Amino acid sequence: MKKAPVRQCVGCRQMVPKKEMLRVIRTPDEEVILDPTGKKNGRGAYLCFSSDCLKMARKNKGLERSLKVSIPDEVYENLEKEMENLETRA
Question: Which of 14, 22, 53, 72 qualifies as a FRET site for 8, CA 20 to 30 Å off?
């Protein structure tokens, strides 16, 4: 049996299987976006499917540290909206 890959959430800092997480990427042209497929090119950071984890990542600057870029407030607001859309679908 293969082991499932695990990643650490930048919000709650828990180790969770990769398939149960949401990937946020910094594209080569310095844009920060959600990657629901997990296959786009760019430096990635992982979040649980929870708006609480996104709030914690914003508070402790976990996304900024992982993606090695400063993130403006508009990007966090867009991420929150996209996270809400994903939570309502699930």
Answer: 72
Kindly state the tokens that stand for 31: 């844009």
Cα 4 from Cα 76, distance rounded (Å): 29
What's the whole-model pTM score?
0.86
**pLDDT digits 0-9 by tens, 33-75:** 888 888 899 999 999 988 899 999 999 999 999 999 998 898 8
Pair 23, 46: CB distance under 8 Å: yes
Both tokens assigned to 24: 């946020």
Give the residue ranges of DSSP H helices in 1-90: 51-59, 62-67, 73-89
